Amino acid sequence: MIKKIISRPQSNWTKDEGLNNNIVISSRIRLARNLYKLTMPSFQKEADASFVLDKVKKAVDALGLQNKELLYFYRLNELTDIEREILFEKHLISSEHREGKANKGLLINERESVSIMINEEDHIRIQTLFPGLQLDKAWEFADDIDDKLESQLQYAFDQKIGYLTSCPTNVGTGLRASVMVHLPALALTKQSGIVLNSLGQLGLTVRGLYGEGTESIGNLYQISNQVTLGQTETEIIQNLTTLTKEIVQKEEETRKWLLKENLLQLKNRVGRAFGILQNSAILNTQEALNYLSDVRMGIDLGIITNAISGNNLSELIVLAQPGFIQRNMETTLEPIERDAIRADIFAQKFRVGGAK
């Protein structure tokens, strides 16, 4: 199954589905869990890590999850560097997990809606990914898997403070809910900083395309809850959903304002981006995603017609990544070679369609 997953740009979160999917690219739920009386990964000996890996795998095997979602198991150190890189590029594993050290594992289903990292920062990281604004659905799915695992495994849990985790900010529910949003109009009008910085006062944090420690590329941001202690899972999800809808409304209002007050400049920006993606000989990742951001906004606003669909635009986020390009070419490439192939991929995708 892993060969199929890493060879296709499609993933569950790239589908053209879910509420506000023109702005909210994806919704993610992540649950951090540790096993009772076992050393946490940061302090593990190899024997302890191996024990956790085997114990979690046996628990999943015993559950018979194939009735709903068949989960495939992989040891990360048995995958190639490029295979792990693609899993990271598709948001299926974390930056730490792609290092592929011994006794790190992954459980993943075929449609890539769930991935379970074993021996990451915590013993277990359950992650569900859905397209658009579907935090409730992602939570329902993650909660069901969590309940099933807890029926087989004894979690580290305190009656007063909740689930015990490696990082103090995850103690409590162990829940991180996040959305990936595309905010080109707010960025263009220099409002994104003001809007996103205000979220810190509301218990949310903003990160780049690939989470903590990364910058925004292509006006894509990940917004998530900051802490998990003192709030229920429902409260965390409702708060993020409400604030995401407010951000979506602000982005939509700004797009309408640009259409009304700056139509010529907007057409020029979108048209230039479209032309560059159609005709460039080389494109690095950042350039590709930045121009894709403008084109995506142009498609959403009807400035560009007869272009590719929303889910294909999301797939291009994956197609633009270095690991995926090298996997498709089945060889390690120099940066300039990747840039040339990336330019050709985008030119082929945008060969039809045009600006009004």
End-to-end distance, in Å? 43 Å
Strand sequence of the main sheet, in spatial order?
Answer: 2-3-4-5-1-8-10-9
The best one-word shape is globular
* DSSP E strands, number: 12
How much helix is in the residues? 40-55%
CATH level-four homologous superfamily name of the largest domain = Glutamine synthetase/guanido kinase, catalytic domain
Largest sheet: 8 strands, antiparallel
Q: Please state the structural category.
A: alpha+beta
What is the residue-averaged pLDDT? 91
The CATH topology of the largest domain is given as: Creatine Kinase, Chain A, domain 2
The total domain count is: 2
Describe the structure using short key phrases.
356 residues; alpha+beta; Creatine Kinase, Chain A, domain 2; 2 domains; eight-stranded antiparallel β-sheet; two-stranded antiparallel sheet; 12 helices
